[in-house]
Each structure stands twice: as structure tokens, then as C-alpha cells.
Design a protein that fits this description.
It is a single chain. The protein is mainly alpha-helical. The protein has a domain of about 110 residues. The chain has 11 helices and 5 strands; from the N terminus they run ααααααββααββαβαα. It has a 3-stranded antiparallel sheet, covered by helices on one side. Strands 1-2 form a two-stranded antiparallel sheet. Helix 3 runs antiparallel to helix 5. The longest helix has about 35 residues. The relative contact order is 0.09.
């Protein structure tokens, strides 16, 4: 934040300036948490009728706090997130370019995006420059990271293309979540992607079976009762309801599993290359 007329930022402003490399991550996590809180409050208060259920009266103030707080934070964080996300997508597109003249033409917008996103993205951009023998000068003082897609190997002044990836969902190395979290290189490992697919699928099926069919024995001895996760978390003991029963925590966990599973799909760039 630039100072004007001798203005000096306060504690929060100085802290924000010192965290320039983490702006995108902070805004991303703030947006995710605020939207999750907003969804929690909305589902509990208005869809599940928690505000009028005496059994869950103790959760009403917390749900209102989550709803209002999530709404306020999301109002400020979400627009910033989309600005940063747009710059990230722009830079990711440039990192896929294999034409030196085109990279030079888009150099300024690439460097502007990298400056906004932090040193990790600056390092990836430097890796692209090294692959195409573009002089970066002393603008960035970071170690270059070789671009991941297309796959290059920096050897002196040449760039060697490596074998193409399998673009299927099960074997992809270029999933949406690997683009969303480029710093976690393990997400480009097919085995890790497969583990996420398996884990989220099993977890989602378990939550669905618990809510819709019941996985716990009731007074009759039949497995026709659902574990109420919302009440159990509050009471710190198992609370069961006659199935089918959908509590707020189960619904939120199911939504998270669905979103995480969808994020393991091959990204749009991988799909376009396959076509």
C-alpha cells in the first residue's frame, strides 16, 4: 500500500506489507473459510430450521455469528480473490506458451502477475525465461523453477520436451487442484491424485450412507439410526437420530468432498491439449 502525504500504515498495514508473498494464500483461505461459515449458517438456520428447533437452541448464536461473519469477510475477500485468481490464470496461460516471440510480447503482463502473486510465481516465470533464453536481468532474486507444463528440462540454452502425460482423470498430472495449489508439487503425482479420489469417494459414500440409510443400531436392534455429527460435536458424545437424517456438518462435509473430488479432474488446459 503506497503512502500518500506522509501517511504511515498501522500495525495491520505493516503486517500485510511484510506478508506480500502470502497475499494470495491468505485471501484464498479467508475466502474459503468465510464462504464455508456463510454456508453453514445459511443451511443450519434457514434450510434445516435450526433457529426454531429447541434441541439445537445452543447452536443458534454460533450459527448466526458464522453467517454474519462469513458474509462480511466474504464481501471483502471474495472480490480480491477473483482478482488474484485472474492474475494467476493469466500467468499460468503464459507459462504454457512455447513461443519465444509470444512470451516477449506478453512479458509485461506476466511480470505484473508474478509480482502480485509472489516469489514462487516469479521463480516459475524465471524458469520459463531460462528455457527460452530470455534475459531477466536483476529484476528477480529468486531461484528459477522449471515450468511444469509443457514439461521442460533446462540444460544450458536448450529446452527438451519430455513425454506427454496421460490426460485421463485417473492418471492425470495436471488436475485443477494442482493449478489451484501450484506450490504443492505432490499434487502432480498421479498416485497422490488417485489417493485423493479414493479417500474423498469413500468418505462421501460413508457420509451419504450414514445420513440416508443409517449405519448405527437403534433400540430395535436394526441399523436404522444416523450419527448426528452436529450434535455429537457439541455434546462430545455420540448422538443418534432415526434415519434418514441430514445434519449441517454432514451436509457441509459432503459438499467439501464433492468439491475436492471435482478438483482432481484434468484441467481445461490438459483437456484442450488432448483434443
Amino acid at each position: 500500500m503506497a503512502s500518500r502525504g506522509g501517511y504511515r500504515p498501522g500495525f495491520i498495514g505493516r503486517w500485510w506489507q511484510n506478508k506480500s508473498d502470502q497475499h494470495f494464500a491468505i485471501i484464498t483461505y479467508s475466502t474459503i473459510l468465510s464462504i464455508a461459515s456463510l454456508v453453514w449458517g445459511f443451511v443450519f438456520l434457514f434450510m434445516l430450521g435450526g433457529h426454531s428447533d429447541p434441541e439445537f437452541e445452543h447452536l443458534v448464536p454460533w450459527s448466526w455469528l458464522a453467517f454474519v461473519g462469513g458474509l462480511v469477510v466474504a464481501f471483502y475477500a471474495a472480490p480480491e480473490f477473483f482478482v488474484y485468481w485472474g492474475q494467476k490464470q493469466l500467468l499460468e496461460d503464459i507459462l504454457l506458451i512455447d513461443s519465444r516471440p509470444e512470451i516477449l510480447r506478453r512479458r509485461k503482463e506476466a511480470e505484473d502477475a508474478a509480482d502480485m502473486l509472489g516469489t514462487r510465481y516469479q521463480a516459475r516465470l524465471m524458469g520459463l525465461y531460462q528455457v527460452h533464453n530470455i534475459n531477466i536481468g536483476k529484476k528477480y532474486r529468486v531461484d528459477a523453477i522449471t515450468p511444469m507444463r509443457p514439461h521442460f528440462s533446462v540444460t544450458g540454452e536448450t529446452a527438451n520436451s519430455l513425454p506427454a502425460d496421460d490426460k485421463t482423470w485417473w492418471n492425470t498430472t495436471d488436475s485443477y487442484i494442482s493449478h489451484f495449489l501450484p506450490g504443492l508439487h505432490a499434487l502432480r503425482n498421479p498416485v497422490v491424485n488417485q489417493a485423493i479420489i479414493i479417500a474423498t469417494t469413500i468418505f462421501a459414500l460413508g457420509i451419504t450412507a450414514n445420513s440416508a440409510l443409517g449405519m448405527f443400531r437403534g433400540p430395535s436392534g436394526e441399523m436404522d439410526h444416523t450419527l448426528d455429527l452436529t450434535a455429537s460435536l457439541y455434546e462430545l458424545s455420540a448422538v443418534h437420530q432415526s434415519s434418514p437424517y441430514y445434519d449441517a456438518v454432514s451436509v457441509l462435509l459432503l459438499l467439501v468432498c464433492t468439491a475436492l473430488l471435482a478438483s482432481t479432474r484434468p484441467s481445461q488446459s490438459a483437456t484442450e491439449e488432448e483434443e
